[in-house]
Structures are given as structure tokens and as C-alpha cells.
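Friendly challenge for the regulars: who can give me the C-alpha cells for this chain first? No prize, just bragging rights.
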Amino acid sequence: MTALMNIGDAAKAAGVSAKMIRHYEQTGLLPEAVRSDSGYRLYGEREISVLRFIRQSRRLGFSMPQIAELIGQWGDAARSSRQVKAIAERHLQDLQQKLQEIVEMKSALEQLVAVCAGDDHADCAILDNLAVDSPSRPSHSANFVKPRRRSQNDSRSPAPGSVATSQLDLMAWMRGVHVHHGNH
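First reply, four minutes later:
Bragging rights claimed.
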């Protein structure tokens, strides 16, 4: 039998933070740890292996549901590599699409930066392009407040229209941005 480790030692051994270990337990990627008589979490070799697997999967950009699916495949001796490859291929297609979107955003932003004089005048080609089809300017300064994380005991839903419920899909928005060259 191997020695059990506390959460700090397990985090070091697996190359993840203790906070992430607790998160993985809460989301079900890692089974709840056994507890010592004093209530401390204890981890063995198997849990460390799973944590390393999760770390490697995250490095490749797999989502939590995809990682759960991969862990299920890893633990299934009757699996076929075809099933695992299909998961990886879907992820690769998603990454390819995201890469294309990033290239398009970069190109659009490069064009905006290129047409901006960047001088002491108020005219700004970047702002003008961002505000295309917006009939008026805001009458306030935006003060972005990072949404608070809700605890598990907090059953309140975010207010409709709040930052938490109206996340801006920047990729989709950028696809609709066209650089307008004007005399600014």
C-alpha cells in the first residue's frame, strides 16, 4: 500500500494547485478524497495519476466535459482507440476553428491599428470603427466590475442583462467588424 498525501503534497506531486484539486472534486472529475480522522483530504497514487492526466489534458485545451469523457475512456479496458481518437479529432477541429477566428481578429485589429493616427487629436479611427452603426456616444464612463463568484449555497441567479448572463461573444462580434477607412 502506498502512502497517502495531504492536498498540498498531492498538488506538488501532480503539478496542479490545491484549489484546482478541490475544483476537480466538486465537478466530479476526481472522486471525493478519503479523509483523515481529523478531516484532511488524503490522496494516493491513483488520484495523483488522474490529476496528472487532467493537467496534461488541460494543457492541450480539452474542456472539462471532454476530460471527463477521456477519463472514462482511460478507465474502460473495453474501449476502442477509435472512440478516443474521435474525441481528439473533434477537439482538433474546434481548435482549428478557434485558430482561424483568432487569425481573423488579429487581422482586423492590425487594420484598425494601422489606420489610427495615434496622435494628440481626439479623432480616433479605432473608436470610429468600433462604433460603426452606433448612432450616439455613451454618456457615461464604463466601470467594469468583475462578477463575484457564487458559493454553492448561493442560489441567487445573476440579474438578467448582467455581465454574468450576457457574456459578449467576441469572436462572433469580430467576424462582423469591417474596417472603415475614412479621412480622420
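Residues 33 and 141 are 47 Å apart (CA to CA). The beta strands are 34-35, 41-42. Your move, everyone else.
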